[in-house]
Amino acid sequence: MMTMTTPDVLDLDTLTLAAVRAGALRDRPVTVLGLARSGIALTRFFVDAGAAVTVYDGRRSDELGEAIAALGGRAVRLMLGPDVDPSAAWAGASLVATSPSISPDFPTTEPALRSALRALVDARGAGDATVPSLLSEADLFLRLCPAPTVGVTGTKGKTTTSSLTAAILAAHPSHPVILGGNIGSPLIERVSELTPAHRVVDELSELQLPTLSRGTTVAAYMNVTADHLDRHGTLEAYRAVKRRLMELVPDGGAVVLNAEDAVVSTYEPRAGVTTVTYRRGAPVAGGMGVVDGWIVADGVPALDGGGRASSGQIMPVAELAIPGAHNISNALAGIATGLLFSVEPEAIRSAAAAFTGVEHRLEHVATVDGIRFINDSQGTQPDAVAAALRAFDAPIVLIAGGREGDRHQRARTGRRRTRVRGRAHRRERPRPRGRVPRRGPLPDRARARSRDGRPPGGRPRARRATRDCQLGRDGPAQPGGRELRHVRRLCGPRPRIQGRRRTVGGDP
What we know:
Elements: H1 17-21, E1 29-33, H2 37-48, E2 52-57, H3 65-70, E3 77-80, H4 86-89, E4 95-98, H5 111-125, E5 133-136, H6 137-144, E6 149-153, H7 158-169, E7 177-181, E8 199-203, E9 218-221, H8 229-232, H9 235-247, E10 254-258, E11 274-278, E12 287-291, E13 294-301, E14 309-316, H10 325-340, H11 345-354, E15 363-368, E16 371-376, H12 382-390, E17 396-399, H13 406-413, E18 418-421, H14 442-447, H15 465-468, H16 481-491, E19 502-506
Helix pairs in contact: 7-10, 7-11, 12-13
């Protein structure tokens, strides 16, 4: 059983899955902050473990109908709305658990809650043993998880690499695989079913990483550029957050590093942690690379301690179904992880070749009169948009928007035959309005609009699929179908399209 520093406050260092199963949380007062996806999962987990749960959220109950319904009638105390004092929600609590976006260090956290959390953390740091510990859903999962874990992070490419890695690990017949974290469902709800035989792929974003006190068995990195500076303030702070996953890898674990990324290639794990690098050229010793059109390994070790190392050809690059040079890099990371976990090369080849990608990331929507429409609505950053455009042969039409201007996006692609279409936002100047040609290429007909957003003739302008497939609080809504409907609206009943263009849609 667990020990406690006081009769009321839980000692997190002794909180294990075995202790939870033995009733360590039964009748203990626990506060959950935030009732979005992670908060819902935390609440269900704690209630099912026997805890007496209080939920705080600054939104009113009429804004949280779906979230409350998702609790499935579990008995919880709800403290909701802007008039609630956040600190009252954890008065007398044994533990406080948060959604990843709630932090005393994030300026994006609601001010009253942020101030109350800062006081809580400072009191705990000053040695007040009566103050409950604060931990996140991501950290709680890693504390309790009995299975080996793979943490996947990077500015872009996390979801594709996480999904591909899970598919590769699932090719091992003896080890069931769970995929979650920043992708799909919060993992805390799956922890009770896990055993040491499982393998867990945990996509980790810049929201979750600062909250971790435990690392993953393997940390796989794609790239680190610049993003989310509204939360982290400076590029240096953002890079420090990303680096944390590597710093937490335990002895006997491994890091998988992109040797072609200017930031990731400088990482140096501590002694006792295996390093596997990957690049799209010849591999270094102990790493992954590409030689004569083949993905190859050069002595990638297995983590099972048997002294096994994989070398030689794994699969032809041409067998990858996911397009673009950046996806070759993502595949190298996933394959390296498979080899670390002793998945046979032939099984890796079959799994990687069968992987066709994920929604909203270079997702094929439709082909209309020879034009391929690609939904890349997760391309929310210039580097990601540039990588998407480089994945296809010109000519390309990019339907995009954003804060920095279409011309800047075009400059980042390095592609002279890329035509940019889209409505500008915020600091951008709107494009000149004009007539919609009744015939001619689709981009020319989709471009022009009148002052109210309707083309001449009164027919409502088709909203860009990239705007309508924005991720909501609980993930993508109606993936695939919505984009296809808007492609059809853009094309009209009988489109007259000249030439062959591929259209890549990016998120504003």
